[in-house]
């Protein structure tokens, strides 16, 4: 088969698996798990073959016009360059591992067939975004991911946290999608096409009349989809969904889509220096704010969620300085180690019976109970903290080197102000990243107290995928020299000065956190805090759902815990109470947007019921009253009808005589 045929099959196979899973979920449940695992696995093999054939060389383009659509045609098009084929391999790999993991994680879940089908559809939509060469076709995958995330985040719909999180994720991302859609139409109007190759060719020849307006409109959609400030607030709350869904959203789909979109259309954004500066500021605020918030969270998954927001900020920063190679390189390495972190967190929550780090810090022996999760999570946290030689070190250094070159004028794609903004924020975020990674590891695996409940050995389907994903977490960065052709052909190797500086500040962040932990452990003899809902024989998904509910019941919030032994509380000081709530952005949005909209809705309801309905009821009452009067005249007595007829005739005759005399006299 040709490369284009194989590429078509890559998103098609998970889609067919989703359709078959939904159709056979109730009638033939034995086929559900094979239909969940085999299509993404086959897509992974085909994506790897497509990547090998493309080889980082010239992009492969193919298109067909299904039907005429007017002056701006919409084509079913493929655009396979080095970025696309590598990202597709990552998406298929993570999706396959998530489906395998889910077979054990939700083994007794009655909604597993629909869950597995939605994960496959989610995967298919992201692969469509990755391979698409037409923006309208890309938009189809973009929106399908939005609706899939709504259903998957709300999988535990019995819990109020999941219901609220799914609705919030849908509404916030749709808020960004409205200007995003307008920006796509404006871009097509300026360039005369939705085809990515034609758009880039038009931009290269100065064919963009409104570059700043278009770039800012598109950035609004990217901020929503990729959880960047100020539309990032949905992502931490989305942790109310199952852990495998979190891994899929954070590592390979949804949030990666926005970054990938900007990388695809970077010349469009580079045509406006103002847009790049806005993107740089957005990335800087996102990196620093999310790092501070992660250091204050008690829910292990919320720590990782804010971590994702910060790492996406690094990718946005790389794009702001005009280096899409560094951005996609960090996207790929982050996808590997973040998938490990979330899937390992699911094992930790199952073993500990809680998602609370405060509760885990009062438990002993957790690392020995789950050695696979402990070791792989340790490796992934080292990669997150950008410690050499793990993948995160090389990819994060590529971002900082790109920012350094722009700041010092060695590159002129973006303004120097954007370079300095990203560089300074990136170094500060490196300190915070190492700090919250160290805090998570110490609280989860170095707790002191009674032994954790014995759940037995974790299922092989859950632990095996951790080691599979740990391989690229360790080795992907070392392969950057071989993969240079896939990243626009320029080197992504770190510079000595930047590597020493960023690694040094990261080590400082980790060591300071370790010192704070040693200081606060003197208080660990206090009674245990945290909500533990351990069920040794329950499936992991049930343990997680109960842990989320019990955490809120115990502390009044899913985010924090009143734990005096938390090193994050010591490090942040008075800033802790602000950081734990995400710097009150949700409260601000509630006051500025939610309450006014609700008040307007109440006003509309009042006007509809008390004003509009009053007139409607009045018209109906008038007709009803007239009908009552007429009905009383209908007695059924013939003599009455004849009398009324003669009486009426007599009245008309008299009236005629009177009028005739009047007119005759005149």
Automatic annotation (TrEMBL):
<dbReference type="InterPro" id="IPR001750">
    <property type="entry name" value="ND/Mrp_TM"/>
</dbReference>
<dbReference type="InterPro" id="IPR003945">
    <property type="entry name" value="NU5C-like"/>
</dbReference>
<feature type="transmembrane region" description="Helical">
    <location>
        <begin position="303"/>
        <end position="321"/>
    </location>
</feature>
<dbReference type="GO" id="GO:0016491">
    <property type="term" value="F:oxidoreductase activity"/>
</dbReference>
<feature type="transmembrane region" description="Helical">
    <location>
        <begin position="137"/>
        <end position="157"/>
    </location>
</feature>
<keyword id="KW-0472">Membrane</keyword>
<dbReference type="Pfam" id="PF00662">
    <property type="entry name" value="Proton_antipo_N"/>
</dbReference>
<keyword id="KW-0560">Oxidoreductase</keyword>
<dbReference type="InterPro" id="IPR018393">
    <property type="entry name" value="NADHpl_OxRdtase_5_subgr"/>
</dbReference>
<feature type="transmembrane region" description="Helical">
    <location>
        <begin position="327"/>
        <end position="352"/>
    </location>
</feature>
<feature type="transmembrane region" description="Helical">
    <location>
        <begin position="641"/>
        <end position="664"/>
    </location>
</feature>
<feature type="domain" description="NADH-Ubiquinone oxidoreductase (complex I) chain 5 N-terminal">
    <location>
        <begin position="68"/>
        <end position="115"/>
    </location>
</feature>
<protein>
    <submittedName>
        <fullName>NADH-quinone oxidoreductase subunit L</fullName>
        <ecNumber>1.6.5.-</ecNumber>
    </submittedName>
</protein>
<feature type="transmembrane region" description="Helical">
    <location>
        <begin position="36"/>
        <end position="56"/>
    </location>
</feature>
<feature type="domain" description="NADH:quinone oxidoreductase/Mrp antiporter transmembrane">
    <location>
        <begin position="132"/>
        <end position="403"/>
    </location>
</feature>
<feature type="transmembrane region" description="Helical">
    <location>
        <begin position="112"/>
        <end position="131"/>
    </location>
</feature>
<feature type="transmembrane region" description="Helical">
    <location>
        <begin position="169"/>
        <end position="187"/>
    </location>
</feature>
<feature type="transmembrane region" description="Helical">
    <location>
        <begin position="76"/>
        <end position="100"/>
    </location>
</feature>
<feature type="transmembrane region" description="Helical">
    <location>
        <begin position="414"/>
        <end position="438"/>
    </location>
</feature>
<feature type="transmembrane region" description="Helical">
    <location>
        <begin position="199"/>
        <end position="224"/>
    </location>
</feature>
<dbReference type="InterPro" id="IPR001516">
    <property type="entry name" value="Proton_antipo_N"/>
</dbReference>
<feature type="transmembrane region" description="Helical">
    <location>
        <begin position="496"/>
        <end position="517"/>
    </location>
</feature>
<keyword id="KW-1133">Transmembrane helix</keyword>
<feature type="transmembrane region" description="Helical">
    <location>
        <begin position="269"/>
        <end position="296"/>
    </location>
</feature>
<feature type="transmembrane region" description="Helical">
    <location>
        <begin position="373"/>
        <end position="394"/>
    </location>
</feature>
<keyword id="KW-0812">Transmembrane</keyword>
<feature type="transmembrane region" description="Helical">
    <location>
        <begin position="465"/>
        <end position="484"/>
    </location>
</feature>
<dbReference type="Pfam" id="PF00361">
    <property type="entry name" value="Proton_antipo_M"/>
</dbReference>
<feature type="transmembrane region" description="Helical">
    <location>
        <begin position="245"/>
        <end position="263"/>
    </location>
</feature>
<feature type="transmembrane region" description="Helical">
    <location>
        <begin position="6"/>
        <end position="24"/>
    </location>
</feature>
């Amino acid at each position: 088969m040709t490369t284009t045929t194989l590429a078509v099959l890559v998103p098609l196979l998970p889609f067919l698996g989703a359709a078959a899973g939904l159709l056979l979920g109730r009638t033939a449940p034995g086929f559900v798990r094979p239909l969940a695992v085999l299509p993404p696995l086959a897509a992974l093999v085909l994506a790897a073959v497509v990547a090998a054939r493309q080889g980082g060389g010239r992009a492969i383009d193919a298109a067909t016009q299904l039907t005429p659509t007017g002056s701006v045609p919409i084509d079913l098009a493929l655009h396979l360059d080095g970025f696309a084929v590598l990202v597709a391999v990552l998406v298929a790999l993570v999706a396959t591992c998530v489906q395998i993991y889910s077979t054990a994680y939700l083994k007794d879940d009655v909604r597993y067939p629909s869950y597995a089908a939605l994960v496959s559809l989610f995967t298919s939509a992201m692969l469509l975004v990755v391979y698409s060469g037409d923006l309208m076709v890309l938009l189809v995958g973009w929106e399908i991911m939005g609706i899939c995330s709504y259903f998957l985040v709300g999988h535990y719909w019995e819990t109020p946290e999941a219901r609220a999180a799914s609705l919030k994720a849908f509404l916030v991302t749709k808020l960004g999608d409205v200007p995003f859609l307008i920006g796509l139409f404006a871009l097509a109007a300026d360039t005369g096409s939705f085809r990515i190759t034609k758009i880039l060719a038009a931009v290269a020849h100065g064919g963009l009349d409104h570059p700043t307006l278009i770039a800012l409109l598109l950035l609004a959609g990217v901020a929503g989809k990729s959880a960047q400030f100020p539309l990032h607030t949905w992502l931490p709350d989305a942790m109310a969904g199952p852990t495998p869904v979190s891994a899929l959203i954070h590592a390979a789909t949804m949030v990666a889509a926005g970054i990938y979109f900007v990388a695809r259309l970077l010349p469009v954004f580079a045509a406006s220096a103002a847009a790049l500066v806005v993107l740089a500021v957005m990335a800087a605020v996102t990196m620093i704010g999310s790092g501070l918030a992660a250091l204050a969270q008690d829910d292990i998954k919320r720590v990782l969620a804010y971590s994702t927001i910060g790492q996406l900020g690094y990718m946005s920063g790389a794009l702001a300085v005009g280096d899409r190679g560094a951005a996609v390189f960090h996207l790929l390495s982050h996808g590997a180690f973040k998938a490990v972190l979330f899937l390992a967190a699911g094992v930790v929550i199952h073993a500990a019976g809680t998602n609370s780090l405060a509760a885990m810090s009062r438990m002993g022996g957790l690392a020995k109970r789950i050695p696979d999760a402990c070791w792989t999570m340790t490796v992934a946290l080292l990669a997150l903290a950008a410690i050499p030689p793990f993948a995160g070190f090389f990819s994060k250094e590529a971002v900082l080197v790109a920012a350094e070159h722009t700041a010092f004028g060695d590159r002129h794609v973006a303004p120097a102000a954007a370079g300095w903004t990203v560089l300074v924020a990136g170094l500060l975020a490196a300190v915070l990243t190492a700090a919250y990674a160290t805090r998570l590891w110490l609280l989860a695996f170095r707790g002191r107290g009674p032994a954790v409940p014995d759940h037995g050995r974790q299922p092989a389907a859950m632990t095996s995928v951790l080691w599979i994903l740990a391989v690229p977490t360790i080795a992907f960065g070392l392969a950057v020299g071989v993969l240079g052709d896939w990243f626009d052909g320029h080197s992504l190797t770190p510079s000595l000065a930047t590597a020493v500086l960023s690694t040094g500040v990261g080590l400082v962040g980790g060591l300071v956190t370790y010192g704070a932990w040693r200081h606060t452990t003197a208080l660990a003899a206090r009674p245990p805090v945290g909500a533990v809902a351990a069920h040794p024989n329950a499936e992991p998904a049930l343990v997680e759902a109960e842990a989320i509910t019990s955490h809120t019941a115990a502390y009044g919030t899913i985010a924090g815990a009143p734990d005096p032994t938390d090193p994050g509380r010591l490090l942040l000081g008075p800033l802790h109470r602000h950081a734990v709530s995400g710097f009150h952005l949700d409260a601000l949005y509630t006051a500025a947007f939610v309450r006014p909209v609700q008040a307007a809705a109440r006003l509309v309801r009042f006007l509809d019921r008390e004003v509009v309905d009053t007139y409607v009821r009045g018209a109906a009452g008038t007709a009803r009253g007239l009908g009552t009067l007429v009905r009383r005249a209908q007695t059924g007595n013939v003599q009455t009808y004849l009398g009324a007829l003669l009486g009426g005739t007599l009245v008309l005759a008299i009236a005629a005589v009177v009028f005739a005399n009047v007119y005759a006299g005149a």
